[in-house]
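Can anyone check this?
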Amino acid sequence: MELNSSMAIGYVMKKLIQEGVTDFDKIADALQELKDLQNKEELFSYDRFTESGSDSKATVITQFSNQKKECILWCLNHYLGLNRNPNVIAKTKAVIEKFGTGCGTSAMSGGMSSLHKEIETRVKTMLGKERVILFPTGYSANLGALSAIPGKNDLILFDHESHASIIDGCRLSGKQWLAFHHNDVENLEAKLKRAQGKYENILVVVESAYSMSGDLCPIKEIVALKKKYPFYLYVDEAHTFGFYGENGRGYCQENGVAEDVDFIMSTLSKSTASIGGFIATKEKYCTLLQCYAGSYLFQACISPGDAAAVLASLDEIETNPGLIRDLHAKSAYFRKNLLESGFDLGRSQSPIVPIYVPELKSLYAFGREIFDNGIFSVSVAYPAVKLTEGRLRFIVNTSHTYQQIDRTLEVLKKVGSKYGIISQKDGA
């Protein structure tokens, strides 16, 4: 296969496999060759890293060239900016002095502390569920729960745009699973109707906000289907917990359907500025996960410092509602200006704001040039999204200033016009 720098790495891997190339060494050689081509043209953004950690602005280092650039960052999920909150940092430091750094082992092997139990209790109270079970990461929460919950004769129906952790959990379960069209309630209902009487249980899995498109789930309509068809509902609130609903209780609570959702999952790496994940559900289902989810049984607990950061972040969310209002105000401001300038944002509604650039060559060039102008985001291409749905994601954080937003808009309009991503008549 002849390679060029405008190819998506995932596409190249797919084509090689289709052509019968199965030797992993040959596949790795081709991917390395493509990466080298992209690095020479400064198109490969995935090896860039910050010099001093995540913030709304940071020095970004390009690994290939070792060049440094001061950038406004738009690729981080710290929605409420609590990773730099002085109270969160101070409380975390104090806990590390008392509890040390690591916990040493998994929850079932004695690695849990009172900090972990406090998180479970706090989240349980927030969401109004019988119990919460804490996992080491959000990824492992989905992986563990979705591989452990389904029985031998069960079916999993999941939204086509579900996160990789959901899909991997379905695969690991070894049970029957099937995708329905993204946010398409009619398509879901058709699949539920066809599945009636063929399975012992059906588990429907959705996300409250989808990480690649930024659109919100029609959760009320999906819950309404439970009156017609028997199924369990599992909602991943990774991108809504902490900044939707009263006091950050999430999208299900905001829509008044939390009681009708059987499993509420979220990560703790986003609004609560740490690491970890949880499942909120009935006591007996938590016991099932405790005994059967491999990623709970065999993975070490989050560190005391991470647990302390979660608890301190929950304190800030509870006592400072202005954080949430500020986030949504800045998100609305950014989105409004992009739409008025003629950018294609798809159906996004949340603080995840994608700019769609279907043509890969333009996508990579767009990303490179805004980086040259001090704006850092990462290109999203196949296989994370469809070949014709490439995009750059801009994730709004409370920590972004309006000055930073305006500077970003200025650069996006200038570079977007240059590459035909917006037209002059649309407002560039």
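Reply from J.R.: I decoded it. The longest strand covers residues 67-73.
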